[in-house]
Each structure stands twice: as structure tokens, then as C-alpha cells.
Amino acid sequence: IKRRGGDGVELPTMIAMADVSERLRLEADLRLALDRGEFELHYQPKFSLAGGTPELIGSEALLRWNHPERGLIPPAAFISVAEETGLIVPIGDWVLREALAAVKRWNAAADDAGPRPSVAVNLSFKQFDRPDFFEFVRDTLQEAKVDARLLELELTESIVMRNADSTVDVLRRLRALGVRLSIDDFGTGYSSLNLLKRLPVQCLKIDRSFMRDVTVSDEDAAIATAILGLAHTLGLEVVAEGVETEAQLLFLRARNCDAVQGYLLGRPMPETTFRSALDEAARR
Ligand code: C2E
Ligand code: CA
Ligand code: CA
Ligand code: CA
């Protein structure tokens, strides 16, 4: 049934129009936000399970938009528009620079003997469309004077599936620099096992959606166990995201999961708070 809006325009069309103007506004706002410095990064701590107690080894940088009126806006509200408009490229450039500046600060404070906290940065497929992506990362590392081994890049399966050959080439060059590469949201996309074999990645991140019911659903437990087994057989590390309970942590520990992130051990936090957590971990 087609209902009609006030002036004879069909309702779905009106909704679509509202959508378009909403998007145009968001696009303009995002541009301004970049110019005005309204983006910020929060850091979610990552913990190694190699020892007896979880050990803080680094963080994942997560983008936030600190809007003057609407407050802190999560990435889900603007990343897709930023990707459609291409704005994710300059935003992504900012994210990499900012994350490297932060990891530099953390490691200036840490003494040489102590652990060296790393930072992981999320990438969008759009950033791989630029032909100079490798050079951009290399030069940004150089300008920031950061050891490439302290940077991890998180790729989604879709990035790798699109344009596999040229992407694999870029990834190999990044890997040769010492940058760590991981596949994000593993299990939610369409990566073939064959591609996994060809990719120069070191780590798989098990998506949060498998973690949620891992201690109550036999299927989710089987999937998580299989991912851990597969990854370890291929010599890859595994990070589990979305760990919220002790039971999930126990499950992962029993299967030799290498590292975890989640609300149980630490939420994404502003840099100052993350630095306090690093300081506290160093004292222990
Ligand atoms: P992601 O890469 O899968 O990041 C994990 C998301 O799960 C984050 O949401 C994080 O805050 C949330 N999370 C972490 N632990 C838990 C937990 O225990 N329980 C629950 N319920 N959630 C948890 P966030 O920060 O809203 O980011 C959403 C997505 O936005 C990210 O998913 C990533 O795909 C994208 N994103 C974030 N920052 C960037 C960025 O700088 N660039 C790009 N291209 N994408 C980004
Ligand atoms: Ca991620
Ligand atoms: Ca995820
Ligand atoms: Ca993701």
C-alpha cells in the first residue's frame, strides 16, 4: 500500500529525501569537525594471557567525535557516511598521526627494560584505494619517530577480499617495515582459508558476536574453539574482543587464546586515563 505525503510525494520518497539531506548535513559537519579538531581517540587496553594474570600490553585506538552540542558520538554513527564521501581518508590520516603521537608519549615514559605498549589502528577499505597508502604509513612512522613494531593495523576481511592482489602487495611491504597486521572481526566476513594462508598477517581478532554466548551456546563455543585451533595451526596469534565475564575469560584461557579485550578488563578510555593504567601496570 502506498501512502501519500502532504503534497502528493510518496512517503518512501519523502523519507529518502530526508535521509539525503540528513546525510548532506552530516557530511558538512564531518568536514568541519576535522578542521576544528573535534575528533579524539579513546584507547581500549589489550591484555596478554601468556602469564598467570592478564598483562597490559597495548591498546586499540577507537575514534570518537566530540560534538560541541551532542557530546561524544560513537563511530557507528558516522563511519559509513565518512566512507561513502571519502572523508574517511583524511580522518584516517588524522587517526594514524594521533595514535602514533600517543604511542610515542607512552614509550617515552616507559623505561627501556619495561614492556613497550603498542597501539592498534582500524583501517577502512577506502584507505587502500589510495595508491600511496604504504608510503603514507612509512612516512608517518618516520615523522613520528615511532618503531614500526609498536604499530598494529587492523584490517577487515572485506578490505582483503576487495582487490586481493594489490592489497596483499601493500600488506607485504608494511610487514617488511615491521608493522603488525591483524584481521579484525574474524569470522563475520567471507575470507577464504586460502587467502588467509597468503596474507602476511600475524593475528586474528575473534569478533565480539562469537564471544557473547560462547559460554552458553555450543555452536559459538565450537566456532571460537575452531578459530583458535586454525589460527594456532597456522602460527597466528588470536585476540578475543568483547570479553565481559570471568567465564568467557576462563573459556579463552583454557584454549590458549593469546590476548583479550573487553569491558571485563578495560573499556575504551581517554589517553590520560590509559596512561594512568600503564603507570599502574608498570608499578606491579
Ligand atoms: P571494532 O574494531 O570491532 O571495535 C570494537 C568495538 O567493540 C568498539 O566499539 C569497542 O568500544 C567495543 N567493545 C570493546 N569491548 C567491548 C565489550 O566487552 N562489550 C561490548 N559490548 N563492546 C565492546 P566502538 O568504539 O563503538 O567502535 C565501533 C567500530 O567502529 C569498530 O569496531 C571499528 O570497526 C570502527 N572504528 C572505530 N575507530 C575507527 C577508526 O579510527 N577508523 C575506522 N575506519 N574505523 C573505526
Ligand atoms: Ca578493531
Ligand atoms: Ca568487532
Ligand atoms: Ca571492525
From TrEMBL:
The entry's keywords: Membrane, Transmembrane, Transmembrane helix
Keyword Transmembrane helix on entry: yes
Superkingdom of this protein's organism: Bacteria
Domain EAL intervals: 23-282
Protein name (database record): Diguanylate cyclase (GGDEF) domain-containing protein
Parent-record interval covered: 201 to 484 of 512
